[in-house]
Amino acid sequence: MKNWNIRKYVDGSLILAMFALVGIWQTAAQTNDEKAVREVLTREAAAVEKGDLAALDKIWANSEDVTVFESGHANYGWTDYRNNHLAPELKEFKNTKYVFSDLKVKTSGSLAYATFKYTLSADIGTHHVDAGGLGTAVLEKRDGHWRIVHWHSSAPRRQASTQTSFVKDFKGVIEKLRAGGATVVQGEEISQPFFSVEGQTLNVNGESVQVFEYKDAKTAEKEAKQISPQGTPIGTTMVTWVAPPHFYRNDKLIVLYVGKNSEIIKAFENALGRQFAGK
């Protein structure tokens, strides 16, 4: 009976020891995964600073299930985000500093998520940008490597101003949009049969916008009067739009956006006032 009790005690101790070892192994594995996720995010920041798309290809999952939400704009799939958001943005950024802080990582099996604060500073042409906010990244372990599959960042809400200052020239449009957190890339010149001046395209959060700058406000006002309240006809030209048109004007500027993105519409209302024609 005594020997049986000793054996029972020894067997119980062995079982407890095995559970302890399993717990230690699981904790170590989790710690290693958290460390690996932190390393991925450190490489992400470094790649953005260098404008290194090849490095980012190895950090992100190169698949169509990638989702990115930034400043009210969404990208679906790595190809969309890489080619239509990252590539044009990084091409313009110079002297970039991108830093994560207050980084917290949690892992569970093949999934992980991280929350963080970020700061970004960069020179864009003659303009300098300082931005910051909060972010969340979701990562998945694929073929033994952690890859980013989802990214969501947001900047703090700007304090409302008691006075509204609308922009009056092309440069002011770009600066106002960027100050509001939009990604803006200057595109090619464009002409419209109903306007007498050449326009300039802007890629704003992945969507095309046309900006027409006249020699003076009087000329811009005269041409704006051709546009019917619904955006067509314009003078004698009947226009079939592929999406709802939005026309904005202030001083010597007329801006045309064709689309449904509420964030872009709001951004141009902040820059130029409410649309004077369109749907």
Q: What would you note in describing this structure?
A:
By secondary structure, this protein is an alpha+beta fold. The chain folds into two domains: 2-154, Nuclear Transport Factor 2, Chain: A (Roll); 170-278, Phosphorylase Kinase, domain 1, CATH 3.30.200. Helix content is 36%, strand content 35%. The protein has six helices and twelve strands. The strands form two sheets. A six-stranded mixed sheet has the order 2-1-6-5-4-3. Strands 7-8-9-11-10-12 form a six-stranded antiparallel sheet, sandwiched between helices. Helix 1 (2-50) packs antiparallel against helix 2 and helix 4 packs across helix 6. Residues 159-163 have low confidence and may be disordered.
Distance between the termini: 91 Å
Strand content: 35-45%
Note poorly predicted spans.
159-163
Sheet with most strands? 6 strands, mixed
CATH topology of the largest domain: Nuclear Transport Factor 2, Chain: A
Question: What is the subunit organization of this protein?
Answer: single chain
Mean pLDDT: 84
Count of separate DSSP helical elements:
6
Q: Which CATH architecture of the largest domain is right?
A: Roll
Structural class: alpha+beta
Which bin fits the share of residues in helices?
25-40%
Strand order of the main beta sheet, please? 2-1-6-5-4-3
Give the CA-based shape.
elongated
- Reading off the top of the CATH hierarchy, the class of the largest domain is best stated as Alpha Beta
